[in-house]
Structure formats: C-alpha cells, structure tokens
Amino acid sequence: MAFRAFYALPVDNFATSTGQHTNAVHGFISMLLKLIAEEKPSHIAVAFDVGSETFRTREYSEYKGTRDKAPEEFPSQIPLIKEVLDALRIRHLEVPDFEADDIVATLKTEAEDESFDEVLICSGDRDTLQLVTETTTVLYPTKGVSVLTRFTPQAVEDKYGVPPARYPELAALVGETSDNLPGVPGVGPKTAAKWIAQYDGLTNIIARADEIGGKAGQSFRDNIDNVLRNRKLNHLLTDMDLAVSLPDLVTEPVNREAVHGVFDALEFTTLRERVFAMLPADSAAPDQDESTELSFDIASWADDGDLAAFLQAHADGEDAQRIALVLDDGATDVERLALATRTHALVLELAALPAGEDAVLAAFLSGPAPKTAHDAKSMWHRLTERGYDLKSVVFDTDIAAYLIHPDQRRHTLVDLAQRYLDRDVASDAAASGQLAFDLESDATIDTLARQALAVAELEVQLTGALEDRGLSHLMTKLELPVQRILQDMEATGIAVSETVFNELYDQLDADVKQAADDAYAAIGQEINLSSPKQLQKVLFEDLDMPKTKRTKTGWTTDAEALSDLFEKTAHPFLAALLAHRDRIKLRQIVETLRSARAADGRIHTTFQQTVAATGRLSSTDPNLQNIPARSEDGLRIREAFVVGEGYETLMTVDYSQIEMRIMAHLSQDAGLIEAFREGEDLHNYVGARVFDVPIDEVTAQMRSRVKAMSYGLAYGLSSFGLSRQLGIEVGEAKALMDDYFDRFGGVRDYLRTVVEQARRTGYTETMFGRRRYLPDLTSDNRQRRDMAERAALNAPIQGSAADIIKIAMIAIEDALEREKLDSRMLLQVHDELVLEIAPGELKRVEALVREHMAGAAKLDVPLDVSVGLGPSWREAGH
DNA sequence: CAAATCACGTA
DNA sequence: CGTACGTGATTTGC
C-alpha cells in the first residue's frame, strides 16, 4: 500500500523543507485514516516486509527477481510511516524471513478462530484474495489508493471465476510476472478458471493432466513443475509465531504529543487536523465547553482578601498545589499577574493591589511555596523591577520544552498550549471570538487566566514527557539551578570603561574613513563598501578579476576570497577593502557595546538558556560571547571590560581543550587518554604518534596539521575540508587522516558508533543524558544527511562540555554562598567563566573555582583548568 | 516592512 | 565539502 501511495502521489509535490520526500507517507496515512473513519475497527495492525530475503527467495532464488529496485525516494519513507503509526498507537509488525502477507494471514486466521464478526484486509497484493471468506473481506486498491474494491467471496468468484480458496491455484497456473513466477504459457485466467471448475481443483487437474487436450494441455504437462512451485510459493502461512496477540491490537487513543512531533517533522498540517478531528487523543485537554465549567475565579482585584483566600485554598495545607504564574506581556503599562492551579485562576493588577494584599503577594512570591512559570528568568527580572523577589520556582515550561526538543528554537507558551493541550491561549483568541465565554471584564484578564491555567496543566504534561526521556534530572538538578545563577549574572552585569570605548571608537572611526578613501581612490569611484552586490560588480565586472567561490546569488567577497585575490592581483583596492571591513566591524562592536552600557556603568547581557541545540548557552543584547580575542585591536576591546568599583580584580577561569578531553573519554582511545595523562602538549604528542617521530622532533607544521585535524574530527571534517584548511592536496589530507586514525583507532570507532546509534535511535546523547534529535540522519537528501551526521558527531561532545561547565557553575555558586563570599560570576563563554573578586577573597575563590571546575565531572582524563587575573578582561584572559 | 543573504566575531 | 551561536548592513520580495 505504501508503494502504491508512492506512485499515486507526485513525489516532487511532497517534500519537507529539508528535502525529505513524504509522498508515500502522506498517501499511506491518508488512506489509513480514511479507512479507520469508515470502518471503525476495534483492532488494527499494519504488517511490513523486512528486507528482500525470505524463505521464499531461498526456495526459489528468482522469486521476485525481476523487480526493479525501489526508487531512491521511497525506502527512507518506510521508517517515517512507522513513526506515524507509533504516534497513532497502531501496532506494526514485521518478521524477518517472512512477508507481510504471512503476518496478515496469521492474524486473520487467529481472528476467525476467535469468532470475530468481521476481518478486513487492505492489501495491494492479490495473493491475499485466498484469505477471503464470509467474514473476511479484502480491500484491494484499484485507482491509486483512494478507491478500494471490496473483495467478498462473491466478488472474487465474479471477477476470477473461482472461489477465494481456489484463487492461488488459478494464480499458480497463470503465473505472476511481478513475482517473476512464470506459469503455463498459453493459459490465462479464463482457461485456468475453466479447468479448476471442470476438474475440481488443481490436484485433480494434475492427476488427470493426460486428459487435457489441445495446445494448452500440452503446455500444462510441460510446465507442471512451474505450477507446483508457484502453488507452493503463493501459499500464505497462517500459523506464524507472532510476538503479539489480538488483544494487543485493540485500537488506542493517539499519542497527542508524538503526533505533533512527527507531523511537525513531516510538515503535515491537514493530516494532523484530520487525526485530531476523528481520533480520540490520550491527553485530552478540556475542550472549550468544559473550560466554561472550570471554577474560574477571576478576582476583583480591588477587593481585599481575595489573594489570601486563593492562596489558602490552593497553596496551603495538605493538598497544596503548585501555583502557576503568568505575567502580562508588558505591552501596556498595567502589569497583571495571573496565578493558577489546573482548575482555578486569579488575576491581580499589581499597581492597584491594596497594601495588605501586596504584602501577601510579596511573601508568597519570595516564600517557599513551589511555583511554576514559563521562562521564570524573564519573570524574575520583571518582578524585580516592581520590587518583588521570585523564589522557589520548581518547574519552567520553557526549559522543559527545550530539553524535550532542543532543536526547536521557539517554544512559546502559546505554541506549547496548542501542541500539548490543543488549546488556543493567544492574546487575540478572546478578541477573535474563539473563547467560549466572554467575561464582562477586559479580555486581557481572561487571556492571562487561561495562560496561567495552561502553564499549570503543561507542567503535568511536560513532567511526564521529561520522565519518559530520562530528562527530569537535567531539569531539576542542572537547568533550574543554572537559571537562578544566570538571573544573578544578568542582573549584576559587567563593568565597562566608557573612556576606553570612546577612545577606541574615535581611533577606529578615523581608520574606517581612511580605509574608505584608499578604497575609493584605488577604483576611482565611491561605492558602498558594505554592499556585496556593488563589490561584485567592481571586482568581477569592472576589474574582471578571477571568480571566487559561488554563493546563492553570485560570488563571495569574504575575507578569505579577497586575500586570495590580493595575492593574485596585488590590487590596492583589495587591501583597502579588507582593512575597511576589519575596522568597520570593530567600530560596530565598540558602538554596540558603548550603547549597551547601562546607568550603573555595566553591561547586562541576556543569556539564552533554551536556544542552542547542543545545550550551550547563548548571549544576546548584546552578545558578550563573541567579543574579539585574537587580533591586537580586538583585544583592546577587552580592555574596556573592567573590574567594578568595590572589587579587587577580574578572574577568568577556563577549561583547556575540554572537547578533546571529552573525545578521549567517550572514545576510550588508549593513545588519546595517555596523551592527556602524560601532561605533554597534546598536539605535539599526537603529532609524534601520527608522523612517527620522537616528540621533540615534531615541527611547527606537523603540530599545526594535527591540531587542525584533531579539532576538525569533533566536527565531522572531511578530507576535502582538511585539505582546504591546510592548503594541501586532498590526497595528502586523506593520507593524514588515515595515519591519524591508524594511531587513534578508538576515535574512529567511536565516531562511527555515534552516528550509527543516532541513526537507530533518532537522537544523540551527552554524558548526562541530554538529547538532540536528528531526523535528517535518514534523509535521502545527501546534503541534509551529511549535515545531520556532522551534527551527530559534534552534539555529544559540545553538549557534554556544556553540561560540565553548567555543573561547575552550580558548584561554584554553592561554594561562594556557603563560604559567604562576595565574589561573583559575571559571564560564561562556553568553556570560560569570568568572575569579579571581592577584596581579600582572591586566594579562597581561586582555590574553590579550580576545585569545582576540575571536579565537575569524573572523566578518564584530567580536566585541566587555568586561571587568569587582571583589572580588565584582556589582562585576566589567557 | 519583513525576510533573506552575506559577512564575521566567539568557543 | 567541521560544530554551535548573534549582530548588522544590504538586498529582495510582498
């Protein structure tokens, strides 16, 4: 049926944005849903073939031998169909060495033995017609997969002239070209049916073969072997030993979350709607009608005592519940806070809160009562502005959704409510009349209440989803504690020197103008040097320079290509352009940072905790994780980040080569582990092994080559990429890789295993169980697949490093608190922390930071930590 | 006016 | 034809 669906729908019209073809999936599932809607089965199963070898091919090696290989767009769709079936909670069966038809025949037989009223078989294989009885009907696709013909005993007889049980005899005589089973030449369905009727079956036909006259009779006698073989092969097994029995096949509610997941990946929208329209789902959210029955208390915020009463009813005593919190979007100047359990909501207008209520609220927010929020870090910041402190957040729906689907960069509350609760809590839902009831009060209040109710309910759903994936620990022990730390880091910020920024800016600004003038002079015209389009015209049309690497819209003008062109042409425009690029970039960075300086003289970045697919943090507004660190001028920018007033010094502490150490640990490669244990310079050590020379004879070139190699490995570098990076021939790069893997075979084996396992399970895992799903690993688009493979190589390594530094941050924060130190963390830059050290605390902080960084994870190699000190980030850096 | 493209900074 | 990010200027497309 899947194959039929493949040919019924145009393959080019069904593909995801990543290039995965989905026409067979769509056609198959569409057909299946229609079937379920019309037939309403009590039990259901789908059977698949496994591979091409079965007991039949061993019996007769040419069986199905003339079949063309399936088109390349087809095979990758089969696992996708199975994923959808899993989400729909429909069992699918496959047994090595047997065909799907045998499974179908066995189940049908069991069902009839159990006196089921009716059995329906949907199959595109005519061999199943032998299974038709008074209770069993075959639905055979006639036009694509949209029209199914019902083969009852009468219908079989009408069409083929034999009763269903005799159909295989007819097929044996006629043969089946698609299975490469020749029958009797000259005998078609009409003759075969006539003989079967006349002699009462194949056995008798064979016994009385001599009596059959004419050409056809002779042909039959010459081909009896074919017929016997055909009959043997087209007999379906009805007594297979299946792992499941009929009670396992009872129809079940669909797994709502899984359906969303798989249909998101497949980019199916109409089918998703059809599924939810027709099938019951497990986590059925109260629908709109039921919502009206919720005890939906919306307090009049002017009344004193409502909050206290609400908290007493829901947050106190033995059956205290989690309180979900939602703050309005801040678009207007009113700030409203909604509190909710799964059934009760209360909305407060903060500015209008009576003093008594305000005190109750403040005590509740900062008190021990457990709370749930969506993006609690933002909420904390906003509540802090209003003078409240938010504590005891024990669940965050944003973080939970991120742990479950780290690749989805967006998981807003509205998205989550739609996906997990099938509920629209968008702020315009009320206005657009989608809500079932309309309170007299403001629609915003209604929306906030609904959102808070949704958060409360999402916690239950997401807690289950986290548990299913073994992610609960990461939530409670890692991400939530890290969230609180980031909150403080963001609030603290890092001090910057306005003077340094101003001086830098003026210098760079002059440089920019000079470089621009030089560039204009070199080409005799003024163009926009920041416009790749205009640059292309000048370089490749006016100056007719050799073409560089292609981009989507033309030829690249990136720094590497421009340097290349400069070597070839020595044109002064290129030098001026490169200088201009460099200066303008730095000037822009300085300007961004200068304007990000807050009234307290510090820059307060925002750390994104739910964005990077590997588990890393990212930094925005401004990004303090990409401050220049290499060039001299870049480093001057770091001079502007300084120790704040009242503090003694900045401290940076970083892990050296943490990703390579994780690679050593995960791969268990003996050579690599030894390299780190020896404490030798890693790249010299590896170079000595790869080039087979004593360690003190490793040249600078050897060292830089193995260094590029080592790092490239963790990212899935190809020999092509390596050759380009090192400026050597592909063959030489290939040889280098081979030598490397000869010496460090454990690394090669590990990398292979990682990809293989990810392809099997659908996800990679860090040392601490953080997952990343990579559905593209089975894509039939090579570019997509290769990209997913490289991501699979990198994710466990980059992700484990991210986990480790998060663990270290928690331990450091704990220690600072425990020892009542005033020193504090300011920034995290993936493998580095920046701290501000309070007077007199240097020694103790350095000791505890070293201890907790190095001790964050127990690897089979040491975690090396280095510490730097200084009045600015530049001097504290390494 | 928003999205896409290009370029480039970090680990 | 290594991974993971964020920002800004220009261009494209509606």
From TrEMBL:
It catalyses: DNA(n) + a 2'-deoxyribonucleoside 5'-triphosphate = DNA(n+1) + diphosphate. SMART domains: 53EXOc, HhH2, POLAc. One of its GO terms (biological process) is double-strand break repair. This is DNA polymerase I. In addition to polymerase activity, this DNA polymerase exhibits 3'-5' and 5'-3' exonuclease activity. In addition to polymerase activity, this DNA polymerase exhibits 5'-3' exonuclease activity. InterPro entries: 5-3_exonucl_a-hlix_arch_N, 5-3_exonuclease, 5-3_exonuclease_C_sf, DNA-dir_DNA_pol_A_CS, DNA-dir_DNA_pol_A_palm_dom, DNA/RNA_pol_sf, DNA_polI_exonuclease, DNA_polI_H3TH. Belongs to the DNA polymerase type-A family. The keyword Signal does not apply. It comes from the Bacteria. It holds the Pfam family DNA_pol_A. PANTHER family: DNA POLYMERASE I, DNA POLYMERASE NU. Its EC number is 2.7.7.7. It comes from Bowdeniella nasicola. Residues 634-841 form the DNA-directed DNA polymerase family A palm domain. CDD domains: DNA_pol_A_pol_I_C, DNA_polA_I_Bacillus_like_exo, H3TH_53EXO, PIN_53EXO. GO terms for molecular function: 5'-3' exonuclease activity; DNA binding; DNA-directed DNA polymerase activity. Residues 1-252 form the 5'-3' exonuclease domain. Keywords: DNA damage, DNA repair, DNA replication, DNA-binding, DNA-directed DNA polymerase, Exonuclease, Hydrolase, Nuclease, Nucleotidyltransferase, Transferase.
